[in-house]
Structures are given as structure tokens and as C-alpha cells.
Amino acid sequence: MTSSAYDPANIFGKILRGEIPCHRVYEDAHTLAFMDVMPQADGHTLVVPKRPSRGLLDADPAVFAPLFATVQRVAAAAKAAFAADGVAVYQYNEAAAGQTVFHLHVHVLPRHEGAAPRRHAGGMADPAVLAAHAERIRAALDA
Ligand code: 5GP
């Protein structure tokens, strides 16, 4: 079995329902953006649609326009906030492809020339650092 139905008990479903906290960067009617707790680079942000799906393949196509509008906004703000040279945007579907949380999400990763990203889903970051990084991106969104 390579996939199954959406399970609302996944960690991002819990974040969306306010059952567990996150370092929020941006929210609108259709999307939420928050810091990845195991960032592969400073400013690593996740963007999720509020409408549930496991990933890209079972998503209602209607979610993609608002989702990628938020990805674009957050990518620009994270790039500016961390004075990055570029920004990587990526998304995994099913465990075989590297997915570990089964609610559709897009990674936004500021990248600097010559700096390799840290390991995917590696060590937990200091919550105070994540809070400060979220604040930097929020400030860039408002600029
Ligand atoms: P995936 O491997 O599914 O593409 O990415 C899941 C991401 O979620 C990983 O980068 C991981 O660090 C992050 N993550 C896992 N658990 C939590 C959590 O409880 N809160 C937040 N904000 N991120 C999480």
C-alpha cells in the first residue's frame, strides 16, 4: 500500500485546528504558513492549504491557486528577511518520496550561495529562534 485516505490526526491537521501550537508566519482564508520545527535552513517555512488532502495527488485543484499565491508571498518575504541568494520550493508525496506528514504542504527554504541545506527533518530548533525567525518573515511580509 503506497497511500491511503487523509487522516485528520496528522500533525498539520492539529496545527490547523489549533490543537498544537506553531510559529505562525501568515494566514488567510485558504492557507496557513508557519516555521518548520526542524529547519533545513534559517527561515524554513511550511505553507499548507486549510482544505485537507494527503498531498498533491488527492488535492482539489482549486486549492493550488491560493496555496501558491501564499507560497509566492512567503518565498519573497523569507528571501528578503534572510538576505538569501535564492529560495527553494519543494513538496513530497508519500513516504517513498520523502513525505513524513500527510497533509499537503510546501516547503519554502531560503538558500545562500555555497551553503548546503541541513538534513531533512533533522534536529529540532530552539523555539525562541523559530519565534524570532517567524517575526522576521512577518515583518518582511508587511514591508
Ligand atoms: P515532509 O517530509 O512531510 O515533506 O515534511 C514535513 C516537515 O514537517 C519536516 O520538514 C519536519 O521538520 C516538519 N515537522 C514535523 N513535525 C512538525 C511539527 O510538529 N511542527 C512543525 N512546525 N513542523 C513539523
From TrEMBL:
Pfam families: HIT (PF01230). Residues 11-118 form the HIT domain. SUPFAM superfamilies: HIT-like (SSF54197). A motif (Histidine triad motif) lies at residues 103-107. It comes from the Bacteria. InterPro entries: HINT, Histidine_triad_HIT, HIT-like, HIT-like_sf. CDD domains: HINT_subgroup (cd01277). This is HIT domain-containing protein. It comes from Methylobacterium crusticola. The lineage of its organism: Bacteria, Pseudomonadati, Pseudomonadota, Alphaproteobacteria, Hyphomicrobiales.
